[in-house]
Design goal:
The protein is built from twelve helices and no strands. By secondary structure, it is mostly helical. Among the domains are: about 10-120; about 190-220, no CATH class.
């Protein structure tokens, strides 16, 4: 097979700027050609200089061109751009979905919304209400189990009501009220003060003289 000579990058850039935007497959083929000639990491820089649309759109049209290379009849189908991008971006494309979409696109335009409808028709979602009912049954048990449990609880309650009264615990011993020690100390202090108030003043003078004569007391005063 004769090797195809790479096309100059400047010629590719001119075609991309002058060609119609809706020519997805040819634009994608040119972008793939440019990418193959550029070193890794330089392609995005080249796009920013020579591609007047978004980087995401560039990769979309490139995948669409690769998709058309695998399925040449795609070029003749009535696939909206977004639907084409969706089909070409699915790595493991469902064959039934592809054939159904191709068949409808051969007659009329197919959009992304229609692709979703086709996928739901081919793979209908599971009945969530049935799953929720199963989950509730597992969590609460069957009707028979609920009835048996209710009867058991009823019998137990009746046995408690019909039986002898339960024994009550003995009354706790009386505890001294809070603050009783403080009350006793207060009473003793008042009693001592009343006793001292009946003694003559001379008695206190004698006590004071003895204290002043006590060496230990003098040391405490000078400390």
């Amino acid at each position: 097979m004769k090797k195809v000579k790479p096309q100059p990058l400047d010629m590719i850039a001119i075609r991309l700027k002058t060609r119609a935007r809706d020519n997805i497959f040819d634009n994608g083929a040119d972008l793939l050609e440019a990418q193959s000639q550029l070193d890794h990491g330089h392609f995005v820089d080249w796009l920013e200089e020579n591609w007047d649309r978004s980087i995401a759109t560039a990769y979309n049209v490139m995948r669409a061109a690769e998709f058309a290379a695998s399925f040449p009849n795609v070029r003749k189908l009535k696939l909206r751009a977004a639907a084409l991008y969706r089909l070409s971006s699915i790595e493991d494309l469902d064959e039934a979905l592809r054939e159904r979409a191709f068949a409808e696109a051969a007659q009329d335009w197919v959009s992304v919304k229609r692709l979703d409808e086709i996928e739901d028709e081919l793979h209908p979602p599971e009945d969530e209400s049935a799953e929720e009912e199963d989950d509730i049954t597992e969590a609460t048990g069957t009707d028979e189990e609920d009835t048996a449990e209710h009867e058991e609880e009823t019998d137990e309650a009746a046995a408690i009501l019909d039986g002898p009264p339960p024994e009550l615990p003995p009354d706790p011993p009386p505890q001294p009220s809070a603050g009783r020690a403080e009350e006793m100390f207060f009473d003793q202090t008042i009693s001592r003060l009343m006793t001292l108030s009946t003694k003559p003043i001379a008695t206190f003078d004698e006590i004071a003289a003895k204290r002043r004569a006590d060496p230990w007391y003098r040391r405490q005063l000078s400390a």
